[in-house]
Amino acid sequence: METLFSILMGLGLSAACGFRVFVPLLVAGIGIHAGALHPAPDFAWLGSMPALVGLGTATVLEIAAFYIPWLDNALDAAATPAAVIAGTVVAGSFIVDMNPWARWSLSLIAGGGIAAAVQTGTMGLRGLSLATTAGLANPIVSTLEWIAAALTSVLAILAPVLLLVVGLLAVGILAFVWRRLRTRLGRQPG
User: Fold this and answer.
1) What's residue 187's pLDDT?
2) Given CB 3.0 to 4.6 Å as the disulfide criterion, which of 25, 63, 66, 117 pairs with 142?
3) Half-sphere exposure of 140 (CA within 13 A, CB side)
């Protein structure tokens, strides 16, 4: 059961990397530093003071950069591969009691994949904001993204099963809305 919770926590943190790359790493590092989280031994460094200072600085810079109008859309291009890497690393850091090949395969496929999916969704939302509001709503989108990253990170640590349920509900709702929009758009003369 502990292995399942560690997998769910790692995957939840990976999803948070899709919103903001450094927020989940910082949250996990704080948890490790406080002794509340126990990563795989080769990732204990995430809780070290130098790592926390670096992750804290990177988090502040990343959040601030997404409030700069032209830079936010440009950062999305760099954030996608960074989110996949961060999602893979953070998943692998908490998946324990598994042989290395299975651990890193699961981390890359599921952790990196979840981070990429969430990042792709945020890019789409930012693009929609740009197209419909000429970017005026992008600061709101940026705020929602870093809040989502922080909440997802905390939920992944405190209640990974709840986060899984919330995530599945969100995917179901998005699929329903998408189908309704496609149906409506298909009926309009055109």
Assistant:
1) 64
2) 66
3) 9
